[in-house]
C-alpha cells in the first residue's frame, strides 16, 4: 500500500513536471499563432480595386491602363446603386431638397437680371417662381400625402403655362416630379427615421466605394478610397445590410433586440420603400464593383504609411529599427568582446574584478525604463544635446553591453584550454594566441551572443521612449545630420499603434501587422543564432 | 625591420636561426610596454561597465535629490514619508500636488508577486523535467522554445495582453476591465519563466550524479529524490533563479504599462486581482514624456526610478550572495 502510494505520487510528480513544460509550449503557441496569423493578414489578403487605386495614387505602383479599365468596369455597377440611392434620398432628405429649391430660385432671379428682362415681366415671373418655391417648400415640410399632392399639383399648373420653359425653373419642376414619385412608396411620418438610417447607408456605401466620381477628392488620405480589402468590404457590407432593432419577441410580450436586415419585409427600416432593391443589388454585385483579387503585399515592409497607419506599410519603422540596432551594435560589440576577453584571459581573482563582475550583473538587472531615464539625463542632455537616433542607439548599446559580455565570456571560456596551450607551445604570446586561436574558435559563440542581443535591442521600447523614438517622425534625411533626428521604430510603433493611436484602432490588421513584423524579425534572428550554435557545437564535438 | 626579416624568413628557412634568440633591450622594453599597455587598455574597457553603473546611479540620484532636499530638514523628512507611506498620487494638480507613491509601490509588488505565484512552481517543475526527466533529444527541442520565449520583445507581449488577453478576460471571464493586475501578472509570469527555468536548471544539474545515485540506492523514487535531496541541495541556486525572475518582472515596463490598467490605487479587497493597478515602471513611462524638466513632478519620477534601481540592486546583491553560496557548496560537495 505504502509502495503503491509512493509510486502514485512519483507518477504525479513526473506528470506535473511534464505538464509544466507542456504549459510553456502552449503559452508560446498561444502567443505566436494568433499574433502571426492576424499579422499575416496585413500582407496576404484579397485586395480590391480600391487597393490598387490607392497603390497607384500613393505609391505610383501598378499598371495605369489596366487600372483605368478596372475602374470603368466597376463604375457601371456602382452607378446603378447610386441611382437607386439618389432617387430615394430625394424624398427623404428634405433639407437638401429645400436648399436645392432655394438655390434654384435664387439662380432664376440672377438669370432674369442677366437677361435684362423688362421690369414688369421680371416682377411677374419672379413672383410666380416665388409661389412655386413656396409650394415646394410647403410640400417638403408636410407629412400628409394628399396635402403634398395638392401642393405639387399647384406647381404643375405653372409647368403647363409654358412661360418657364428653358429656364432654371424647369429644374424645380423636375424636383417636384421626383419628389412625387418617391413619396408614393414612403411612409412620410417616418421620414426622420429614414433620414437617420439613410445617413448610415450612405456612410457605409462611402466606406465600400469611396467618394463618388463627381465628388472632389477629400483632404484626408483615409477618406480618399473605399474598402481596399475584401475582408473590410465584407465588414462594411454587413454594417450596410444588418441593423440592430428592437422588435416584439415571438411570444408577443416583451421587446427584444435583434439583428435584422435593413430590407427585411417585416422589421427592416426600409421595408416597402424604393430603396429596397439597393441592398440585394449591393450584396450581389459587390465583387463586380470591387473586383477583389488575391494580393501579396510584400511592399508592406518597405512602404511609408498614411497617418494612423490607415494605408501603407511599416517601411520607416523597419528602417529606424535597423539603424538603431546596427548603431547600438557598433558601440557595444567592441567593448563587450574586449571586456569578456579581459575577464577570461587576464583578470585574476581580486577585489576589483569581483566589483566589475557585480557591476556587470547589476547592469544586466537595471530595469529598462531606468536606462531610458539615464539616456535622457545623460546622453540626450550632455552628449548629443538633442533626442535622436544617436542618443537612442547609445542607450540601447549600454543595455545590450552586459548581454554581449556574458555571451562572449561564455564562448571564450568554452574554448578548450588545449588550444591555448598549443598556441603558446608554438611560441605565440598571450595576446597573439588569443587573437589567432582563441578568438576564432570562440567566434561562432560570440556571434550567437551578438545576434541574440541584436534581437534584444530591436525589441526594447522603454529605453528609447525618451531618447529618440517618435511615432510620427519623418524618415531621416541622410543629407543632413540624420543621427540627431528622431526616428520611428518598430518597437515604439507597436506600442503607439495599439494604445496611442485612435485612427489605427480602426485597422486591426495594421496593428497586428506591425507586431508581426517585429516578432518575425526577432524570431529570424533567434533561429539564425540557434543554427549557428548547433553548427558550432557539432564542430566542437569534432565533426 | 621586422618586415624585411619576415621577407627573408619566407625565402630562406635557414636564416631564421641566424636571428639572435636574445631580445635587445629596446625590443624587450617594447614587448613589456605593449603587454602593460594592452593590459591597461583592456582593463579600462572592462571598467566601462563599472563606470556605467556609477553614472546611472549618479544621474538618477542627481535628478531625484531636488525632490527630497528642498527646504528644511524636517520638510525633507516629511516629503520622504509622504512619498513612501501615502497613497494620493496627484502630481499634475496645480494648487495642491500630492506625491504619495505607496499605491504605485504596492501595485508593482502585486503584479510581481502575482507573476511569481505562477512562474515559480511552473518554472522549477519545468527545470526538473529538463534536467532529470527529459531525454536528450527532447531537451534539444525544449531549449530553443525557452529561448524564443525569452527573446520575444516585451512590447509584443504587451500587444498580446491588450489585443487578445484583455478582450478575452472582459468577454469570457466577465471582468469589468480587461487591463488589470491579473492580465499583467499572467504575461509577466511568461516573461519571467525562461530566466527561472534556465538558472534553476543549471542549479539542478550542478548537483552531482552521486547524490542522486545515493538517494536512488536507498530506494527513493524519483519524486522523493528530487524533492527531498536534489532540490534542497541546490536551494541557493533556485532561490537565485527566483530572484532573477523577480527582477525581470519588477523591471518590466511595456507589458505592465499596457496591460495593468494604470489606476493608482490599492485593490480592495486585497486579493482581487481583477482590478487595475499601476506600477513604478509604468508611472515613469507614462508621465515623463509630458513633464517639463526641473519641476517637482520631474524629480519625483526620478525618485521612483531610484527606488526601482535600489530594489533591483538589492535583489541583485541577494542573488549574488545565493549564487556565491551555491558555487561554493557545489564545489565542496
- Number-wise, the strands of chain A total 4
The CATH homology group name of the largest domain in chain B: MetI-like
Strand order of the largest sheet of chain A: 1-4
CATH architectural name of the largest domain in chain B? Orthogonal Bundle
Cα end-to-end separation of chain A: 52 Å
The end-to-end distance of chain B, rounded to whole angstroms, is 57 Å
* Average pLDDT for all residues of chain B: 85
CATH fold label of the largest domain in chain B: MetI-like fold
What Rg of chain A do the Cα atoms give? Answer: 36 Å
Oligomer: heterodimer
Q: What spatial order of strands do you see in the largest sheet of chain B?
A: 1-2
Number of domains of chain A: 3
What's the shape of chain A? elongated
Biggest beta-sheet profile of chain B? 2 strands, antiparallel
Provide tags for this entry.
heterodimer; A: 543 residues; mainly alpha; 3 domains; two-stranded antiparallel sheet; 18 helices; B: mainly alpha; MetI-like fold; 2 domains; globular
Secondary structure topology:
The complex is a heterodimer of chains A (543) and B (333).
Chain A: H1 2-40, E1 44-47, H2 49-59, H3 64-92, H4 94-114, H5 119-141, H6 145-160, H7 169-183, H8 191-209, H9 230-241, E2 242-248, E3 255-261, H10 276-290, E4 293-296, H11 315-346, H12 351-365, H13 368-384, H14 389-414, H15 417-425, H16 430-459, H17 490-500, H18 508-540
Antiparallel strand pairs in A: 1-4, 2-3
Chain B: H1 2-11, H2 25-68, H3 73-85, E1 89-90, E2 98-99, H4 102-133, H5 136-151, H6 154-171, H7 181-206, H8 209-217, H9 222-233, H10 235-251, H11 254-259, H12 280-287, H13 296-332
Antiparallel strand pairs in B: 1-2
Helix pairs in contact in B: 2-13, 4-7, 4-10, 5-7, 6-7, 7-10, 8-9, 10-13, 12-13
Amino acid at each position: 500500500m505504502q509502495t503503491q502510494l509512493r509510486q502514485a505520487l512519483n507518477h504525479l510528480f513526473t506528470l506535473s513536471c511534464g505538464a509544466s513544460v507542456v504549459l510553456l509550449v502552449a503559452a508560446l503557441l498561444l502567443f505566436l499563432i494568433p499574433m502571426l496569423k492576424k499579422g499575416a493578414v496585413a500582407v496576404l489578403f484579397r485586395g480590391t480595386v480600391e487597393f490598387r487605386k490607392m497603390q497607384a495614387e500613393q505609391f505610383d505602383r501598378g499598371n495605369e491602363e489596366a487600372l483605368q479599365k478596372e475602374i470603368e468596369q466597376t463604375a457601371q455597377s456602382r452607378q446603378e446603386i447610386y441611382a437607386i440611392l439618389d432617387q430615394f434620398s430625394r424624398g427623404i432628405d428634405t433639407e437638401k431638397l429645400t436648399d436645392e429649391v432655394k438655390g434654384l430660385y435664387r439662380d432664376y432671379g440672377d438669370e432674369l437680371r442677366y437677361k435684362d428682362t423688362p421690369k414688369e415681366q421680371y416682377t411677374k415671373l419672379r413672383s410666380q417662381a416665388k409661389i412655386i418655391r413656396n409650394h415646394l417648400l410647403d410640400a417638403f415640410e408636410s407629412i400628409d400625402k394628399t396635402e403634398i399632392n395638392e401642393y405639387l399639383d399647384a406647381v404643375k399648373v405653372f409647368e403647363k403655362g409654358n412661360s418657364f420653359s428653358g429656364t432654371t425653373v424647369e429644374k424645380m419642376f423636375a424636383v417636384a416630379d421626383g419628389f412625387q414619385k418617391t413619396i408614393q412608396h414612403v411612409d412620410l411620418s417616418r421620414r426622420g427615421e429614414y433620414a437617420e438610417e439613410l445617413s448610415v447607408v450612405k456612410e457605409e456605401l462611402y466606406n465600400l466605394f469611396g467618394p463618388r466620381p463627381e465628388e472632389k477628392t477629400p483632404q484626408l488620405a483615409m477618406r480618399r478610397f473605399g474598402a481596399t480589402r475584401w475582408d473590410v468590404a465584407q465588414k462594411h457590407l454587413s454594417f450596410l445590410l444588418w441593423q440592430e432593432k428592437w422588435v416584439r419577441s415571438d411570444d408577443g410580450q416583451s421587446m427584444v433586440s435583434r439583428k435584422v436586415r435593413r430590407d427585411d419585409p417585416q422589421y427592416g427600416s426600409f421595408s416597402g420603400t424604393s430603396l429596397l432593391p439597393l441592398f440585394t443589388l449591393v450584396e450581389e454585385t459587390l465583387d463586380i464593383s470591387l473586383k477583389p483579387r488575391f494580393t501579396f503585399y510584400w511592399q508592406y515592409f518597405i512602404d511609408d504609411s498614411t497617418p494612423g497607419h490607415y494605408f501603407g506599410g511599416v517601411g520607416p519603422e523597419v528602417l529606424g529599427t535597423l539603424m538603431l540596432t546596427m548603431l547600438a551594435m557598433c558601440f557595444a560589440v567592441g567593448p563587450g568582446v574586449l571586456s569578456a576577453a579581459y575577464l577570461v584571459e587576464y583578470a585574476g581573482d581580486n577585489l576589483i574584478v569581483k566589483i566589475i563582475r557585480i557591476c556587470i550583473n547589476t547592469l544586466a538587472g537595471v530595469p529598462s525604463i531606468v536606462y531610458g531615464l539615464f539616456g535622457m539625463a545623460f546622453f540626450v542632455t550632455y552628449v548629443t544635446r538633442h533626442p535622436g537616433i544617436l542618443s537612442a542607439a547609445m542607450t540601447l548599446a549600454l543595455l545590450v553591453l552586459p548581454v554581449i559580455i556574458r555571451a562572449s565570456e561564455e564562448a571564450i571560456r568554452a574554448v578548450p584550454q588545449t588550444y591555448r596551450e598549443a598556441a603558446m607551445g608554438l611560441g605565440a604570446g598571450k595576446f597573439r594566441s588569443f587573437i589567432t586561436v582563441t578568438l576564432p574558435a570562440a567566434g561562432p559563440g560570440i556571434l550567437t551572443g551578438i545576434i541574440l542581443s541584436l534581437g534584444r535591442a530591436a525589441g526594447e521600447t522603454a529605453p528609447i521612449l525618451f531618447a529618440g523614438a517618435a511615432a510620427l517622425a519623418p524618415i531621416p534625411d541622410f543629407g543632413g545630420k540624420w543621427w540627431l533626428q528622431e526616428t520611428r521604430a518598430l518597437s515604439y510603433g507597436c506600442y503607439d499603434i495599439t494604445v496611442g493611436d485612435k485612427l489605427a484602432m480602426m485597422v486591426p490588421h495594421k496593428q497586428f501587422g506591425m507586431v508581426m513584423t517585429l516578432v518575425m524579425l526577432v524570431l529570424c534572428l533567434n533561429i539564425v543564432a540557434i543554427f549557428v550554435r548547433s553548427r558550432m557545437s557539432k564542430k566542437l564535438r569534432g565533426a | 625591420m621586422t618586415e624585411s626579416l619576415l621577407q627573408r624568413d619566407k625565402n630562406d628557412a635557414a636564416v631564421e636561426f641566424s636571428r639572435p634568440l636574445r631580445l635587445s633591450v629596446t625590443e624587450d622594453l617594447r614587448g613589456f610596454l605593449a603587454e602593460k599597455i594592452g593590459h591597461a587598455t583592456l582593463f579600462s574597457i572592462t571598467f566601462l561597465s563599472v563606470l556605467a553603473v556609477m553614472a546611472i546611479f549618479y544621474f538618477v540620484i542627481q535628478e531625484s535629490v531636488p525632490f527630497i532636499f528642498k527646504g528644511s530638514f524636517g520638510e525633507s523628512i516629511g516629503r520622504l514619508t509622504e512619498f513612501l507611506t501615502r497613497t494620493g498620487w496627484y502630481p499634475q494638480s496645480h494648487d495642491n500636488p500630492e506625491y504619495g507613491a505607496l499605491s504605485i509601490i504596492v501595485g508593482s509588488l502585486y503584479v510581481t508577486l502575482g507573476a511569481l505565484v505562477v512562474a515559480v512552481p511552473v518554472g522549477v517543475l519545468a527545470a526538473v523535467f529538463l534536467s532529470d526527466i527529459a531525454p536528450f533529444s527532447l531537451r534539444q527541442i525544449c531549449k530553443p522554445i525557452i529561448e524564443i520565449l525569452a527573446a520575444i520583445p516585451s512590447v509584443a507581449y504587451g500587444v498580446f495582453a491588450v489585443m487578445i488577453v484583455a478582450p478575452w478576460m472582459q468577454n469570457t471571464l466577465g471582468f469589468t476591465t480587461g487591463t488589470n493586475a491579473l492580465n499583467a501578472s499572467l504575461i509577466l509570469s511568461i516573461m519571467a519563466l525562461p530566466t527561472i527555468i534556465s538558472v534553476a536548471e543549471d542549479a539542478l544539474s550542478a548537483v552531482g550524479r552521486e547524490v542522486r545515485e545515493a538517494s536512488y540506492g536507498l530506494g527513493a523514487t524519483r519524486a522523493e529524490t528530487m524533492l527531498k535531496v536534489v532540490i534542497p541541495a541546490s536551494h541557493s541556486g533556485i532561490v537565485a533563479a527566483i530572484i532573477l525572475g523577480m527582477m525581470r518582472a519588477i523591471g518590466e515596463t511595456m507589458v505592465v504599462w499596457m496591460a495593468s490598467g494604470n489606476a493608482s490605487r490599492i485593490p480592495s479587497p486585497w486579493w482581487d486581482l481583477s482590478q487595475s493597478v499601476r506600477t513604478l515602471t509604468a508611472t515613469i513611462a507614462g508621465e515623463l514624456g509630458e513633464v517639463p524638466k526641473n519641476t517637482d513632478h520631474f524629480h519625483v519620477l526620478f525618485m521612483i526610478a531610484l527606488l526601482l534601481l535600489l530594489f533591483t540592486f538589492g535583489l541583485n546583491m541577494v542573488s549574488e550572495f545565493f549564487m556565491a553560496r551555491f558555487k561554493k557548496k557545489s564545489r565542496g560537495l
